[in-house]
Amino acid sequence: MTATNPPSHPARRTVLSGALALGTGALLASALPAGSAQAATGPVIADTTTWGARTPSSTLSLINGAPDKVIVHHTATDNVTDYSQAHAYALARAMQTYQMDTEHWIDTGQHFTISRGAYITEGRHNSLSTLVAGTQHVESAHCTAQNTVAIGIENEGTYSTVDPRSAQYAVLVDLITYICTQYGLRAYQIYGHRDFNNTECPGDHLYALIPQLRRDVAARIGGDPTGPVWPMLSSGATGEKVRTLQYLLVQHGATLTVDGSFGPATLSAVTAYQNTTHAAADGVAGNQTWSQAVAPLARGASGSAAKAVQSQLTAHGITTTVDGAFGPGTEAGVKSFQTSASLPSDGVVDARTWSRLLG
Questions:
Q1: Which DSSP category does 233 fall into?
Q2: Which one of 68, 74, 240, 337 is at 20 to 30 Å from 133 when CA atoms are compared?
Q3: Is it the case that residue 12 has pLDDT exceeding 90?
């Protein structure tokens, strides 16, 4: 199952608030242990057993390798003043109950949750153990079309008009730093939910903190925190950027002539893709469309996305055969471009290399 938050969240807010009113009492009555898990260099995270999670309704999928991004959310619930551990555990149970019983997901959708009191709880089962190992991650249900490639973090509260509490934000920095360290991610691979889906999440104020969040994480792990910047393309546009867009749409299943002209067929393909990924279906290729369409490419890849890279390299003066096979020549061309663009010269076309190719 996949998740996407609509522009407002009254149902979720109502359900979770009601569940929390009952959940805290249940926690105190049952006196669940206040244990937690902590990796050697990571923050304290209460695992699913500690907060009293239900068993998933079916088997969870483990994905080999690392995710390629972290996505930040807010729960769109009240900005409570109960900062206790008991409340954090009750929140974790309430979210799982809502997502399993109302949304009919197999488990909690996100990997981790940070309460207003700055307690971290594991969300979906196995999220913590795979993070500690650093070689797998769990398929999730927090962001449509990103659930196999992204770690999702919910932050308790609604951050449309206010910032998170400083203690909560500090723990968010701690958690993401650890995630980046374990999975080899860079600080610019931190995003907000609205970068991919048509949603208000994670709220205007928390979303506005994403650049600062990248800088704060980069201060710990190193590297340039500057994130990707995408062009806006609409009907009537022409040129290499449109050609790249068309190649990527074909990679995602569209039947489209790659001619560098944004005509009716391209408009139709863009809108169809936006509907599939729960992006804003306005027919304009902007932040959400590009963020969804690009995926990391490296040596051994093939297909229309590889052609897009090769065509862009040629347009940048690095002559490359446009054959859709990402071999040694393409890798060398990518490394050459990355060096010229002051990017890490690793030969991997990640989101930031894509964005620099697009200018």
A1: B
A2: 74
A3: no
